[in-house]
Amino acid sequence: MKTDHSKHQQTWVSNQWYVAAWDYEIDRTPLARTICNETIMLYRRFDRTIVALHDACPHRLLPLSMGIKEGDDIRCRYHGLLIDSHGVAKEMPLKNDTVNKRACVKTYHVVERHRLIWVWIGEQDKCDPDLIANFWPCSSEGWVFDGGYTPIACDYRLMIDNLMDLTHETYVHQNSIGQSELMETPINTRVEGNQVFVERWIPDIKAPPFWRDALKQDGKVDRWQICQFQIPNTIMIDVGVAPVGSGATLQKHDQGVRGFVIDAITPATKTTSHYFWGMARNFDLDDAGFTARFRKQQSGVFDEDVAVLEAQQRSIDANPNMKLKVFNIDEGGMKCRFIINKMIEGSPKQ
Ligand code: FES
Ligand SMILES: [Fe+2]
Questions:
Q1: pLDDT tens column, 255-265
Q2: Closest-lying ligand to the alpha carbon of 304?
Q3: Of all protein residues, whose CA lies closest to atom 4 belonging to ligand 1?
Q4: 60 CB less than 6 Å from ligand 1?
Q5: Is 88 exposed, middle or buried (0-12, 13-18, 19+ CB in 10 A)?
Q6: What is the pTM of this model?
Q7: Tens of pLDDT along 198-220?
Q8: Homologous superfamily in CATH for domain 11-130
Q9: How far apart are the first and last CA of the chain?
Q10: What is the pLDDT of residues 229-248, one digit of tens each?
């Protein structure tokens, strides 16, 4: 019988930053999250800096996230080993015992940027903050950004496929954001280094209701959608409309209203993921109500994707002898997978 070795291969790239949480999710109380098969817990010190530690007590492996916070330290809830926020043991279960300095916990490099918490997965001495995905609209003047978190029971690459092929909007989102013009407009796919772009320029159409309201006027518009994949797992989708004749082009389009749909799909295990999503926009900047309403609406749209992708994963698991087929619409996702696979070959195994 043939063995399927692909089942045992790592499906994500090591020595990369992965989003572990939103800034608003991390507080003094530890948050446990499995990232790329590693159990990690995160919390803030008094000075608000973030700690990311392996979530297993070095004694008998009880998750440390169940422990009791003592200042910036954490005491294991089983036998009371005290660990400081740098992962070093400070006090043994029997207080008079000499501290065993080998009883330490792995720490992870962690950076707070673009309202998200990024953890370095791989060799900690290779950590490079310059490699964090460039989510510039999430922390630039003239933009406002917010979003949410959805756990999803599928391989993170299925979500990348989904986001790099927006033709799915017509069917998956037929009751929310689907628009038939999308299917009629040709797409262009291109690769730039380790980035993949899928671009669509839709000239001279009636503005869909969301964009008409954002623009605050009726009339014909040019619309664009540019999906940008960045290694190892993020996608930004540049979307918006500008009145016809305003001079907006596929390359440069600051004339109308513009948003960036932000997605980071972090693998938890091979078949479960953490989906961090949001939207940065350059209009109605001070309208907090709009931000809240849009977040709710976006969450509803993504729930439609989650239902489809979890069913797809169950079907993949139930049909181990069937392979995924590639159609023209899959070009963007396939190019992302090609880059991911190439980098996995060159990256250290966890
Ligand atoms: S398991 Fe943590 S102190 Fe024993
Ligand atoms: Fe979708």
A1: 999 999 999 99
A2: 2
A3: 79
A4: yes
A5: middle
A6: 0.95
A7: 999 999 999 888 899 999 999 99
A8: Rieske [2Fe-2S] iron-sulphur domain (2.102.10.10)
A9: 28
A10: 999 999 999 999 999 999 99
